[in-house]
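pasting for ref. prot 1 ->
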Amino acid sequence: MFPYDGRLRLLRAKHAYSPPEIKEILHLATLNKLEVIPLVQTFGHMEFVLKHEALAHLREVALFPNTLNPHEAEALALVGAMVSQVMELHPGARWFHVGCDEVYYLGEGEASRRWLQQEHNTKARLCLSHIKAVACHVLARHPATRPLVWDDMLRSIPEDQLSASGVPQLVEPVLWDYGADLDVHGKALLMEKYRKCGFLRLWAASAFKGATGVSQALTPIEHHLRNNVQWLQVAARGPADVLQGIVLTGWQRYDHFSVLCELLPVGIPSLAVCLQSLLHGGFTEDVKAKVENFLGISNLEVTDFTSEGPGSFPGSDILALVTHVSLHLRSSVDSLLERDRLFKVSQRRSLNHPRPPRLPGQPQWAHLHAWVCPQVRERLVQPLPPQAEARAPRHGPAHPAPGAQPAGQVERRGAGAGGRPASCLLSGCRGGVAGGERAAQPEAATGLAAGP
């Protein structure tokens, strides 16, 4: 969605934001006490770059467009050009996320195989070398900007190798895990390991949508609530003053070639629940009442999809429509398929039926289709107002997930700024809740991404 230009213009999506639109977004963010942190994938999740024939020679493995070849000087130059163009439209950004998660097939390219045959060369060293090169590029041109990096490629690297690499002095790792059964003790130990290696600042990453299924339509709020509450437990056990905040990600898709996860309006109730729980240290009755008031929902259910009323928040009509389609269409299709299966079984067993039984799922399906299509079209395909007709469209296909998560933006709330898809809204009080309610809680961040 970024308007890459010049020799990078082929990376621009058809409906990418224009530079004036990005400036408008940044201006509105400032007015609302938000700080924007850009994210650009620079190692893995490079499908949106390496899918192009003109850049295919920069793949680590020729068949797969997801990982950049770290041995090619042109590859680092490409990444540097991408970073420079993004930073040009984000002057003064205090953080810049360089991605580097899920670098699949690293070490399997021909150049890497030759390099690994040399003494003392390992995949860990290869990975750290590229991360260091990218971070140095950012810091050399923007010394006041601190690089962030996803941590999964660092987890298994021994402490002595991490310490000796020089990477801990250059980047701040973002520990990500979106499961509902987090290993709290293990995550606290991982934070301690990173601290011993020399990383002075760490971030955590949870999720409020996506992350539970590549084609998930409705958001399982309970899953994401448990994930966020457990990250609070990790924060309480981890080294003091090391964790800078929790990035509350919202996946758009798992990777550049995947279908979309939940639409943003569908995930807004989960976003409200998770963010308020992070800010207040848990999901109490008072927090639940506050969320219901925000959303205009009389009784919010976090264990299923049966909340009373669709709510009055922007996009609530889309949530109601998707809920109706998902719950009713699925049962209708399941019924249709089951009846068809039984009919075919009876045919194979030569049971006598004068005529096949009527399949009630068929008229239900047709009726639902006839009702849904106009509803979707009416809500999602609306004409622009007259004064906007000449302007470029504001929205388009999601950017590549950085698994999903895609090049994107990470946004931070408040003046004290501490992203698979790809923006994060961070609360405005370092090391605590906005307004100082619970100083022991880390800052909360929300984002649309394909997190890793």
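and prot 2 ->
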Amino acid sequence: MLESLFFKNKDKDLIIKSLNNYMEQLKLHFDLSEEEIDLIIKIVSKKRNNKKWWQFW
């Protein structure tokens, strides 16, 4: 329900596609595995403290 307040289905699909593309670029550029990318996402999610994701890269 909360999710529907922020995103329309079209926006949600676009966000998912964009994130997947970004993850692919991380894999290629930094030679990371799926597990390493998952770990990075978890670490950033825990540490972000209301900051936007791009403030960490």
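The radius of gyration is 13 Å.
The chain has one domain: 9-51.
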